[in-house]
């Protein structure tokens, strides 16, 4: 099983490295580039206010209190090569990010432990 679009992105990377990519449209500079960027922000995130755009950042993970602000908690841990390879394989085969796979596996294990006690 391959990651959706993997072949496309591999070809795109090969083309970029070979210098074979053509611009998708006219090159924008100065005021035209600024207007195009602001229009893209309005279309994709609903605002072109620079302060609002910078405040948004990455959303907190689901299940986190809406009254808490700031970044979601992060873990930094070491794992064996075998475990790393297994998680990489599951992520690749399921087409999901590695961090999502790890969160789901940890949550399932905690649920199983809670049910057995």
From TrEMBL:
GO terms for biological process: regulation of DNA-templated transcription. InterPro entries: CopG (IPR002145), Ribbon_hlx_hlx (IPR010985). Residues 76-111 form the Ribbon-helix-helix protein CopG domain. It comes from the Bacteria. Residues 49-70 are annotated as: Disordered. Pfam families: RHH_1. This is Ribbon-helix-helix domain-containing protein. It comes from Rothia santali.
């Amino acid at each position: 099983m391959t990651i959706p679009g993997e072949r496309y992105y591999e070809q795109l990377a090969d083309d970029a490295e070979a210098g074979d990519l053509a611009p998708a449209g006219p090159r924008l500079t100065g005021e035209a580039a600024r207007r195009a960027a602001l229009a893209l922000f309005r279309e994709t995130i609903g605002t072109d206010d620079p302060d609002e755009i910078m405040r948004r950042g990455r959303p907190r993970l689901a299940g986190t209190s809406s009254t808490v602000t700031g970044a979601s908690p992060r873990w930094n841990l070491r794992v064996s090569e075998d475990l790393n390879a297994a998680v990489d394989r599951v992520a690749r085969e399921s087409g999901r990010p590695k961090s999502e796979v790890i969160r789901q596996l940890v949550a399932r294990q905690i649920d199983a432990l809670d049910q057995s006690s």
